[in-house]
Amino acid sequence: MLEFVLERVGAGKITRKRTTSAEHAPSFTYAIWNRQALELLRQIAPHLQSYKRKRAKHVLENYVRLTPATASTLPNLQLNAGNSKNTYSR
After folding, report:
1. Which of 5, 39, 45, 70 minimizes the number of CB atoms within 10 Å of its CB?
2. Nearest Cα to 5, choosing from 35, 32, 42, 27?
3. How many whole angstroms separate alpha carbon 87 and alpha carbon 54?
4. 31: closest CA among 55, 9, 50, 13?
5. What is the DSSP letter of 78?
6. Are strands 13-17 and 27-31 parallel, antiparallel or unpaired?
7. Contact 45, 53 (CB under 8 A)
8. Please, where are the H alpha helices in 10-49?
9. CA-to-CA distance for 13 and 31, rounded, in angstroms?
């Protein structure tokens, strides 16, 4: 199933989880990061149910604004020192 998701999404990584006992079956996990995860969320958000749809909408509306870029990707990024909420401006 995870290989199907990886193939369809075209991004992310499947890793093997460590087993703590010989009695446990091998298990795997799928992970996706940053803007790729945001794009995947944008695609699946309409299909989510209950509070998860609201949370997805909140993330999609605010992720870019609330996630500061590193200085190496945006050299003119400046912290608004006078603002106690640590907002960033470009």
Report:
1. 70
2. 32
3. 23
4. 13
5. E
6. antiparallel
7. yes
8. 34-44
9. 5
Whole-angstrom Cα distance, residue 65 to residue 83?
15
User: Is 79 in contact with 86 (CB distance < 8 Å)?
Assistant: yes
Ranges of H-type helices in 1-90: 2-9, 34-44, 50-66
pTM for the complete prediction? 0.63
Give the tens place of pLDDT for each residue, 36-61.
999 999 999 999 999 999 999 999 99
CA dihedral defined by 55, 56, 57, 62, rounded to 10 degrees? Answer: 90
User: Which of left, alpha, beta for 86 (phi over 0: left; psi -120 to 50: alpha)?
Assistant: left
Token pair, residue 16, equals 């093997």
C-alpha closest to that of 66 among 38, 34, 88: 88
